[in-house]
Amino acid sequence: MVKKLIIGLIIWGFVLFALNQAWAEISRRPSEVYVKERQLIVKKRLTDGRLSQPGPYIIKGITWSPATRSPEVGPNPLKPGWSVQYGFFFDWPGRNPSGREVFLYWLKSQYPRYYLIDIPLMKRMNVNTVRVYDDFGTDPLVYTEILDEFYYNDIMVIMNLVVSKADIESETYLKIVEWCKNHPAILMWSLGNEWNFEYNKYWGYQTVAQGARATNRVAQKVKAIDPMHPVSSCLGDRFSDLKPSNTVAWIVENCPDVDLWGINIYRGKSFRNLFIQWQEASSRPFYISEFGTDSFKTKDVTQVDAYRADNCRGGEDQNMQADFVIQLWDEIVKHLSAINPVSFCLGGTVYTFNDHLWKVGSYHVGLDGLIDYSDPDEARSFLDYNSEGFFIPDSHPDNVANEEYFGAVDADRNPKMLFWKLKDYYSKLHLDHQQR
Question: Which end of the chain is more exposed for a tag (fewer CB within 10 A), N or C?
């Protein structure tokens, strides 16, 4: 009896080994994704190695940048093994490396720290697509581990390749494409985020036109080594401008090698005329790459200037956040090309998965003047939620964006009401979706 049991275990071990070998081979073969007219068509790589039948894809997504609380000190990106001050990422005279360098290094380091926690939660939320803002660093094994986890959880990835002019000119993005192009979890490549806005300095180029030419060059080079996945880029809401070459329409027309576009939209409880504006701007499909609101309801505030809001008084209202996002999703559904081929919209990625406590202290968010460094508690407030925000009229229910509260889960990964309502909504959103 014992001998038979041992033989059985040995045989089962060989079976598991063979399955693992087959899985390893399958997991390095890509899904096939392409744009057909106004739809995104996906042939998913199945676990047995076959491709699924091609079908129009609805992006039921969330954005993901897992960094939450910045530590007081951390690794020096220029001198491995040395530590430098973290906390807030603003620059000050003599800071070396710069706050930006430290910040970007830290952001990328958080993906391997959180992916085993966050991705199963996304699966539980019925997300099928995740848009990431950064690459995962310089270790190809990290890419494999994170993308494998997405694949095991049946989630596809919109993988960002570049965030700056330095990234574009160094061409390090080509290594990332080579590492990841055969992974079945890749849905598409993405180039940057809102690079058409001045605060992003057009990648670091002098004009939008220069940034657009650089974007198209990157798209050409990516497609030359990976014909299996579309290339996208994400723009901010700039459909009108005194200078025609600053507009979304001009950029899209002058980036012919970008297959589809993401648009970040914050216009309040409705997208208003967005879908008409896009139709007038381009014949290519798009998805809404950021939308939503925060869960902090501001009732009173100290106004510092026309943009910054200090000491927002109020409290969390998670139902307000969830209902706001679902109302916007109801609007998206009416324009999904997967359901109605004459439409242009592929879906959306809600902003964002987790609360970001680093936001007030970020070098680019612009709230440096609101922090009193002489106050011991405030000087270390990067470890907890802050009440500062931005006045953005007609964009949020209370006209204030509290940057640290946009997550579907909080800083400790506790699901908020938005998590549960998106979970229910995404479970019912199919190609045969009936309007509510």
Answer: N
End-to-end CA separation in angstroms for the chain: 61
**Of 221, 223, 236, 160, nearest to 191 (Cα)?**
160
Contact criterion met (CB below 8 Å) for 410 and 355 = yes
Which regions of 11-108 does DSSP assign to beta strands (E)?
Answer: 32-36, 39-43, 55-56, 59-64, 73-76, 79-85
CA atoms within 13 A on the CB side of 246: 11
CA distance 98 to 93: 10
Closest residue by Cα to residue 433 from 350, 340, 349, 343: 340
**Tokens read off for 194:** 């809102």
Q: Please check whether residue 194 is in contact with residue 264, taking contact to mean a CB–CB distance below 8 angstroms.
A: yes
Q: What are phi and psi of 36, to 5 degrees?
A: -125, 110
Query: Using an 8 Å Cβ cutoff, are 349 and 130 in contact?
Result: yes
State the sign of the Cα–Cα–Cα–Cα dihedral 10, 15, 21, 27. Answer: negative
Extract the runs of DSSP E, i.e. beta strands, from 319-422.
Answer: 345-350, 389-391, 400-401
Those residues with Cβ within 8 angstroms of residue 388's Cβ, 6 or more apart along the chain or in another chain: 308, 309, 310, 311, 312, 360, 367, 370, 402
CA atoms of 62 and 35, how far apart (whole Å): 21
Core vs surface per residue 302-315: b (16+ CB within 10 A) or e = eeeeeebbbebebe
149-180 confidence digits (pLDDT tens): 999 999 999 999 999 999 999 999 999 999 99
In angstroms, what is the C-alpha Rg of the chain?
22
Tokens of 72: 């007081």
Selection from 172, 100, 102 nearest residue 136 by Cα: 172
Residue 65 phi/psi, 5-degree rounding, is -135, 100
pLDDT 10s digits, 104-146 = 999 999 999 999 999 999 999 999 999 999 999 999 999 999 9
